[in-house]
Amino acid sequence: MTAAAAAAGALFFVLWWMLQAEESPWVPAGLAASVVMLVAAFARLLVARRAFRNRDRQAMRDSYRQTAPYPATFTQVMQSTSRHAAALRALQKRSAAADARDSAETHRELYELCNEYLTGAETALHSLALQADGRVALRAGQERVREMQKHHLLTWARNSARSLTHEAQQRARLYEKVETANRALDCIDQALKVYPDDDELRISARAVREFITSSRVAHWVELAERAAFKGYSQRAIDCYRDALYYLSRDKPDADGEAAAERIMKEIDLLRARPGTDRAIDSQHRSPAGNLDPKS
Question: Exposed, middle or buried: residue 11 (CB in 10 Å: 0-12, 13-18, 19+)?
């Protein structure tokens, strides 16, 4: 920010000197300097948010590892039955805390920690030094952590998709709605890559896609209604056709088919209406001598 302030000051005086012939040279110079400071402040805000997010993630990992009396690497922990049991208890404790907090970011962190546990357990199972009772305990721990892993990934995907979909519903512009909804869909797709047979994820993905389609259809229908109200029949028909395109691109359900029928009826009504567009065009193209002098 100090460097940005220095650059803004230098830019202010340079522009002031260059624009001395103008009436108020300090106005554009001040605006340019203000833009430099605003850009610097925005960049600083982005960097600070990223730093805070990384710090929180690292603090969570450090807190998790400090609660368990064993070294940081899971592979070393799995070699000892007692230390493995302590690691499993610590992981279950963190899982319960994540469920209580119910934050999407926390569930994602727990999913990654479960991945680390399972990777360390799989490595330890290939070790010849591991005793038979340790192998049994390790496999039992793997089953528990796999269930925990699935729970946290699905919870993360569900919470993230719900939050982003709600945010998309609050957006005013179509491209903002679609962009935010696609981010929700990306979260669900990440979970589907791990658990492709989960019905809840498929239902959620279908709901988000229907929201995107309905937003696009509503946008084009609104444009068509505006054009029809202003008398631009052909423009309204084109907008209705765009709405039909988005309806037919996905497999429409009963509501989609009913909406398509309503749109087709509106198109038929517009086609039956006298050619308003042609009348307007002919009126604008008529020679000046044929116009009524009172008009």
Answer: middle
Element (H, E) at 207: helix 199-229
CA distances from 269 to 40, 165, 275 (A): 55, 35, 12
Contacts (Cβ under 8 Å, ≥6 apart) of 249? 213
Q: 3-state secondary structure string, 107-171?
A: HHHHHHHHHHHHHHHHHHHCCCCCCHHHHHHHHHHHHHHHHHHHHHHHHHHHHHHHHHHHHHHHC
Question: What ranges do the domains of the chain cover?
Answer: 1-14+26-65, 77-166, 220-274
Q: How far is 166 from 292, CA to CA, in rounded Å?
A: 56
Residue 293 belongs to what H/E stretch? none
Residue 141 has pLDDT above 90, yes or no: no
Q: Determine the angle formed by the axes of helices 199-229 and 132-170, rounding to 10 degrees.
A: 10
pLDDT of residue 58: 62
Distances (CA, A) of 273 to 1, 232, 261, 276: 63, 11, 19, 8
Cβ-proximal residues to 97 (8 Å cutoff; 6+ apart), any chain:
106
Structure tokens at 200: 């809840």
Assign 281 a pLDDT band (cuts: 50, 70, 90). very low
Q: What is the pLDDT of residues 144-169, one digit of tens each?
A: 888 998 999 999 998 899 999 999 99
Q: Please, are residues 164 and 191 in contact by the beta-carbon 8 Å criterion?
A: no
CA distances from 243 to 3, 164, 221, 231 (A): 51, 24, 6, 19
